């Protein structure tokens, strides 16, 4: 198995699993002029916002733009827990 | 018919079947008794003359009209069989930059008195040639292939058409392969339409007979054995306002029926 993994190790993760998801992603990037830099800034601000509201971010923050009916919807997944009282 | 309608057929991406669509829809509308003019705005890379088998009849072209070398009437090439179908060819040895949107608009405005439908074949891209092609459009038809690069370009084109105040934009999904859609290897027509969110005017299946038709100069709509030809015929009827149901895209032969029975097609 390790031998087989050697060949796939360097492969990038696909940006989406199906052609439809990929199209949705591609269109939302185009329609809202979003790029990776903007998404990274978005993520940082969301973490700051959680902190302001008393939450600790406990996992990977995901910001995924999706396209539906010529509108872009930005989905954010933020795993959090309430801050421990000091 | 009270008023002439000008329709630009466009796509953004090249090679999706714009000229094939214009040639077939032009013939389809002429078969239905309308006076139709096809305007090729792909200056430097004209194709419509070949699609219609009229390449040997061209004397003057669009640029000659603009430069005053010929009149519109002198430059129109009538179809051999359908006299109500005319072509205003593009120049083959000139450049798109030599024509401006207002000049194309002036020509189309002159054609309105003589024709019920003016179909404008747009070049690929979104630069000057595209601007020329949409300058005089009352409506637009977007030809899209069910693949991501084509849909993405079309989405961009919809935005440009909307900014140009073209309110009515219809969609033709061309070169659909039902087998690939079934296997999940091609986007479905429904998904393409859902993403672009414009009215679906027609669905044209991939058809090898189209290659034959462009080589012989007989638009595929004249080929009674072609499913794509039948699809274009239906689209022509929808264009004039008829309510035509969407057809089954796969020809159902005994072999395909048996294959489907055993889930191998």
Record keyword descriptors for this entry:
heterodimer; A: 86 residues; alpha+beta; two-stranded antiparallel sheet; two-stranded antiparallel ribbon; 3 helices; elongated; B: alpha/beta; Rossmann fold; eight-stranded mixed beta sheet; 12 helices; Septum formation topological specificity factor MinE (chain A); ParA/MinD_ATPase (chain B)
Integer-rounded radius of gyration of chain B? 18 Å
Total number of domains of chain B: 1
- The radius of gyration of chain A is 17 Å
Helix content of chain A: 40-55%
Note the beta-strand portion of chain A: 15-25%
Please list the strands of the largest sheet of chain A in the order they lie side by side.
Answer: 1-4
Task: Please provide the count of β strands of chain B.
Answer: 8
Which blocks of ≥5 consecutive residues of chain B have pLDDT under 50?
Answer: none
Number of strands of chain A: 4
Q: Low-confidence parts of chain A, pLDDT < 50 over ≥5 residues?
A: none
Overall geometric form of chain A: elongated
Protein name (chain A): Septum formation topological specificity factor MinE
Keywords (chain B): ATP-binding, Cell cycle, Cell division, Nucleotide-binding, Septation
GO molecular function (chain B): ATP binding; ATP hydrolysis activity
InterPro entries (chain B): MinD, MinD_FleN, P-loop_NTPase, ParA/MinD_ATPase, YlxH/NBP35
